[in-house]
Amino acid sequence: MKVLVTGAAGFIGFFLIKSLLKNNDCQVIGLDNINDYYDQQLKYDRLSQCGISQAKIASDTLIKSDLHPNYHFIKSDIEDKEVLFKLFKEEKFDYVCNLAAQAGVRYSLENPDAYVSSNIVGFVNLLEACRNFPVKHFVYASSSSVYGLNRKMPYSTKDCVDHPVSLYAATKKSNELMAHTYSHLFHIPTTGLRFFTVYGPWGRPDMSPILFANAITSGSVLKVFNQGKMMRDFTYIDDIINGVLKVLFTPACCDSSFNGELPESDSSSAPYKIYNIGNSNPVQLIDFIKVIEQTIGKEAKKEYLPMQPGDVVATYSDVTELKDNFGYSPTTSLDEGIMHFVNWYKSYYKLNDK
After folding, report:
1. What is the pLDDT of residues 5-25, one digit of tens each?
2. Is 113 in contact with 37 (CB distance < 8 Å)?
3. Distance CA 248, CA 214 (A)
4. E-state strands within 129-246
5. How far is CA 287 from the centre of its chain?
6. CA-to-CA distance for 291 and 301, rounded, in angstroms?
């Protein structure tokens, strides 16, 4: 079987590809544009872990891994429809996992065009590619941010998500709506995964674990928003990947119990599905910071600030359906996850001897 993973140089994409390559029957092609939203060297270093040499990477050229004979990588953009269609036509993918997106809630206030280009135009290009060159299953990253102003906890995929508070969240809800349309019109099995605050080694430097660790280790001021009165459903990367793998190779099916008079947002008469994928165990932000402080062995200098625009007070995932349908069950404790993260952080940023 052949799998396309977009966002291959990204945090989740990198770990997904590493796991897929453990299956000798799986051929994997990774695609990423390696943009400069954050440190490109971190992306190149992730790729090198899978045998993709930075020196060999050339735009729109498929290159073979030096470590894994079943892995190839192409530096390209999902917005480039011509390259994407050529790739789909030649490779004849069985499964597609779209993790490519312009990420970040707050950056969407500064550069909305990047979100429209990648998360809307690029997403439609992928759907069109799956339409013209049929695949068994199209899985894509959605986000817990779609819940927006919702206050009922835990968040359920059956809940209405009509009140996003950032453009990033709005593009992710748009992805779900567009996927449903293609599932309905062209019978493409699609599944959206609403990720909840993924953390771990090799994470994005604009996300809280590295921001917190940077402030703690450098002695700079750590900005704690909403006075620290926030909760996040922090989910360790290994638990996320286990869930993605369970879903990817099980195409979404039509729901025979779907009721058009009382429709639920997470299922359909089309081969379409939405799942939350999180830890289902929210943690106070200030407690998360304390665990990082204890693991590093140094206390942060904190500045307590008001809520940021586009942010939400809490996230909390109801993963009942993912558990019932796939046996999904996160097993990594916060202490263990942070230990793995801090060990990687100190090693990668060469802080062990400082």
Report:
1. 999 999 999 999 999 999 989
2. no
3. 35
4. 137-143, 190-195, 198-199, 221-225, 231-232, 235-236
5. 24
6. 15
Q: What residue type is assigned to position 312 of the chain? A: V
| Residues making up the chain, counted from first to last | 354
Neighbouring C-beta atoms of residue 113, cutoff 10 Å: 8
Residue among 82, 144, 37 at smallest CA distance from 10? 37
> What is the per-residue DSSP string for 26-89?
-EEEEEE---SSS-HHHHHHHHHHTT--GGG--BT-EEE-SS-TTEEEEE--TT-HHHHHHHHH
Q: Is the pLDDT at 354 greater than 60, yes or no?
A: no
Host H or E run for residue 95: strand 95-98
- Residue 352: count of CB within 10 angstroms of its CB: 8
Report in angstroms the alpha-carbon separations of 104 from 1, 147, 292, 299, 348: 33, 15, 22, 27, 23
> Given the DSSP bridges, would you call strands 62-64 and 71-75 parallel, antiparallel or unpaired?
antiparallel
Residue 284 to residues 43, 143, 214, Cα–Cα distance (Å): 30, 20, 20
Rounded to two decimals, the pTM is 0.95
Is 328 among the residues known to form the active site?
Answer: no
> Measured between alpha carbons, how far is 137 from 246 in angstroms, rounded to an integer?
12
Q: Quote the CA–CA distance of 273 and 36 in Å, as a whole number.
A: 32
First to last CA, the chain: 47
Alpha carbon distance 211, 3 (integer Å): 33
Radius of gyration of the chain (CA): 20
Judge whether residue 163 has pLDDT over 60: yes
Peptide bond connecting 271 to the previous residue in cis, omega within 30 degrees of 0:
no
Check: CB of residue 274 under 8 Å from CB of residue 252: no
Give yes or no for a contact between 208 and 283, defined as CB atoms under 8 angstroms apart.
Answer: no
Give me the catalytic one of 168, 182, 199, 328.
168
Give the pLDDT confidence of 227-245 residue by residue, as tens digits: 778 899 999 999 999 999 9
Distance CA 146, CA 168 (A): 9
**Percentage of residues of the chain with pLDDT beyond 90:** 84
